[in-house]
Amino acid sequence: MAAIIELQGISKYYSKTIIGVDDVSLSVGDGEFVTLLGPSGCGKSTLLRMIGGFEEPTHGSIRLAGRDVTQEPPYRREVNMVFQDYALFPHMTVGQNIAYGLKMAGMDRVAARRKAAEALELVGLPDKIDQRPHQLSGGQRQRIALARAIVRRPKVLLLDEPLSALDARMRDQMRIELKHLHEKVGITFIMVTHDQEEALTMSDRIVVMEKGRVAQDGRPQDIYDHPASPYVANFIGTTNFLPATPAGQGQFRVAGGALTSQDAAPTAGAVTLGFRPEKARFLAPGETAANVVEGRVSEVIYYGLGLRTAVDLGGGATVFVDSLLPDTLVRSAIPQTGSPARVAVEPHNVFVFAGEVRL
Ligand code: ADP
Ligand code: MG
Q1: Is residue 359 situated within a structural domain?
Q2: ∠ at Cα 187 (181, 76), nearest 5°?
Q3: Quick one: which atom of ligand 1 is closest to the CA of 42?
Q4: Mutation test of ligand 1: which of 10, 14, 196, 209 has the most ligand atoms closer than 8 Å to its C-beta?
Q5: 114: in domain
Q6: Closest-lying ligand to the alpha carbon of 20?
Q7: Could you give phi then psi for residue 329, rounded to 5 degrees?
Q8: In the predicted model, what is the mean pLDDT of residues 53-78?
Q9: Ligand 1 centroid to 46 CA: how many Å?
Q10: CATH number of the domain within which 209 lies
């Protein structure tokens, strides 16, 4: 895939001590849907604004479709940005809002209106062209903002937390629609979010950021199944962490027993094991398995989709086991609070991280 965006050693220092982005190199393929994911303050918006030309990098270069645009203002880049608050003109109709940029670029009124109508069709609102923004719902306004952003067919669309102003139900729906829009128009999307679920469901690729740097860059499933660090394992999904000591041949001693992993691992020194609560299961009485830790159930928490059971392994270590419901078989297999429990997890689901984890 040809690269449409190439970032080379990009940094942004707001001052000597405030570092927004720290030496990021990144290549985005033409037509990709890439998400910048991380907690508030990790530099996502700063990086996006530099791609758009709204912020000047302190170091590094930005290439767009093979051309160095580092010193170019936003309007000289074939990039458009969708803002969180939509920024629609309230006194203009939907059609006028969408056509605004086309008219500024010299297109005549009739052609601009036709382009606006096409863009509205793409976002599923063909009949709203003569309405005003205040007559529309939040979700509809967001789609108008999207139509306006794509009407001139930029090479890259930048989206900064585009769904965060919507309520939960509308957000779920817009996730899917935004993904479909991406497929329909074929424009490269670079989206910023702090919402891991949004990133996992929508993107071809996720760039996880940590303190201005790239912590991991990969496909959603690869990042979820093979997090590169405890930070990533903790930020995306839930991970049980257990201090461990290598015992040779991929085996590690932990509170409550020993676990084997298939990860390449240090053979000496302190390590930390990790596994996902939903990748663990309880053994039935009399059942045996290779990779087991033992403890006592300290709490069972109902969360709608299933049960999360806390198991105290002793030595201050607790792990969670998630069991999907409704499934009466599963429910009967979950030990009750206070009873002993054996937790099994397959070796390929056990992560190994060097050192102790402090989160
Ligand atoms: P995110 O979008 O991931 O929440 P930002 O890119 O907005 O993160 O911010 C990254 C860091 O840069 C934060 O420490 C933030 O306080 C700082 N920062 C962002 N914008 C400015 C600015 N205009 N002036 C000074 N510091 C800023
Ligand atoms: Mg931000």
Answers
A1: no
A2: 130
A3: 3
A4: 14
A5: yes
A6: 1
A7: -65, -45
A8: 96
A9: 6
A10: 3.40.50.300
Q: Choose among 152, 146, 116: nearest CA to 131.
A: 116
Q: Pick from 46, 83, 158, 193 the residue to mutate for probing ligand 1's pocket: most ligand atoms within 8 Å of its CB.
A: 46
DSSP letter for each residue of 12-66: EESSSS-EEEEEEEEEEETT-EEEEE-STTSSHHHHHHHHHTSS--SEEEEEETT
Domain shared by 225 and 242, yes or no: no
- Ligand 2 centroid vs 86 CA: distance in angstroms? 15
What tens digit of pLDDT does each residue of 135-175 get?
999 889 999 999 999 999 999 999 999 998 888 888 999 99
Checking DSSP bridges between strand 213-218 and strand 251-254, what pairing results, if any? Answer: unpaired
- Which residue's alpha carbon is at the smallest distance from atom 25 of ligand 1? 14
**Position 122 in a domain:** yes
Q: Nearest ligand, CA of residue 43? A: 1
Together in a domain, 209 and 89: yes
Domain region containing 163: 3-231
Q: Which of 206, 231, 256 is the last residue of a domain?
A: 231
Q: Which residues neighbour ligand 2 (ion) by CB within 5 Å?
A: 45
Inform me whether the pLDDT recorded for 24 exceeds 80: yes
Q: Do 76 and 154 belong to one domain? A: yes
Amino acid at 164: S
- pLDDT number for residue 143: 92
Domain end point (choices 183, 215, 231): 231
Ligand 1-lining residues (CB < 6 angstroms): 14, 18, 20, 38, 40-46
Query: Residue 307: CB partners within 8 Å, gap ≥ 6?
Result: 300, 301, 322, 323, 325, 331, 334
Taking the model in full, what pTM does it have?
A: 0.93
